[in-house]
Amino acid sequence: MDGVDYSEFTGRPYDEQKAHFDKALKLAEDKLGFTLHAFGPPGGGTKGLTDANTIKVMTDVPAMKVWLYPQPIDGAGQELAAKGKVTILDRVWAANIENPLFVPSLAKLQAGYEKSAAQRKYFVLQGHPTHWNDEGWDQFVKICEYLQAKGCVFMAPSEYVESVSKKNPSDSANPSAK
User: Fold this and answer.
1) What is the mean pLDDT of the chain?
2) Shortest CA distance to 92 belongs to which of 59, 125, 54?
3) What's the rounded Cα separation, in Å, for the pair 38 and 171?
């Protein structure tokens, strides 16, 4: 825009971001038969991938309930979570399926998991299987086996939020709260 590169949800006007959400929600409802409730913007652990307009859209779109936050939770994320409409699930980038992007690695996930597990109630894991070769799939299987051996339970973000809110309704806006 005007010779400046922006990510999909940074530097874009509110109306454009809102239209993007609305179109994606309608497409999911029409083609998949269900409503999306979680938003996972581009990630990578760097700041600047969403902005104040994204936060307003998350507040204004009724279906949006969970945000897979693209960075350690910051003031904007804390403020949004405190309002109670959207639950923020932040990420530990060192404990992710792909490291680097598109390359699953058990060794790297394991190192990040071991370093962070004692301080976490959950991990948000995201991958791009359409980009994996056979070795990538083998690593993914090993990652799943490793996490299962650690007693991890796999669930969709909305399922996790629901399970936490049933156990302790006061933590539902920020499930990582102790």
Assistant:
1) 87
2) 125
3) 18
Write down the residue that tokens 């990040």 correspond to: 112
Average pLDDT over residues 84-98: 90
What is the full DSSP assignment across 5-34? ---TBSS--HHHHHHHHHHHHHHIIIIISS
Question: What is d(CA 174, CA 85) in angstroms, rounded to the nearest whole number?
Answer: 11
Spatial strand order in the sheet of 38-39: 38-39, 66-68, 87-89
Q: What is the pLDDT of residues 127-147, one digit of tens each?
A: 999 999 999 999 999 999 999
Q: Give me the residue spans of the domains in the chain.
A: 1-91, 92-178
pLDDT at 51: 86
- Answer yes or no: pTM beyond 0.70: yes
Beta strands in 41-156 (DSSP E): 66-68, 87-89
